[in-house]
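Reposting from the mailing list since nobody answered there.

I have sequence plus structure tokens for a pair of proteins and want to know whether others read the tokens the same way I do. The first protein:
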Amino acid sequence: MNPLAKEDAALFTAVSDPKWMVNGLRNRDLVATLYTTPAEDDNERRRSSRVTRLLRLLRAYHLLEKVPRTHRYHVAPEAQIKIKALLACRNANPDDLTKKAA
């Protein structure tokens, strides 16, 4: 995972959205968030498969926890801090940081 890449940053932004904090997120929710254009015939299945692989990757990095006996995932409490820090690092402007440091 490269948090500075556009696709991974979009994934981190989608996963860290506060609307998922109460009930958690599902594959279907993440597909709808990441892909805003309507799907073609076979494209919907490919999107869902790709998001499944991304969910497994996030679980492997201990950023997501599966809710037992459901198809939902929660962002791990310590992972919320890590994701917010990575997104802040990505969105930081070096010129502004230099001015503030001086």
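The second protein, same order (residues first, tokens after):
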Amino acid sequence: MSLIIVTGIAAEHFIKDLVVKINDKIKVIAVPNRFFGEKVTVSGLVTGSDILFALKGKVPKDAKILIPQNMLRAGEDIFLDGMKLFELEDSLGVKIKVVPVNGAEFAKVLLHG
């Protein structure tokens, strides 16, 4: 199984540096923001359609994708563009795990799944 971490452009290098120290087989994909414009680089404004456009046809079926919790509306499994998390999972054909935006929790998921 491969592990893919989805992030915004702004955090890409930080996340890649962190991941290499933990496990160099994990792939980090920075998703350009087409919904709000490519000048918007934070993960909290990445939408489901942005992720779908960036990953469609590029994700192995055995992959597990991690996304930060701030990509979803507070307390919901819905992206800012209205796409539901399960709709993105169905479209990509993979499971997506939502990870708290917290360094310790993120590291725990990377180390223990």
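Reply #1 (J.P.):
I read it the same way you do. The chain is about 35% helix and 15% strand.
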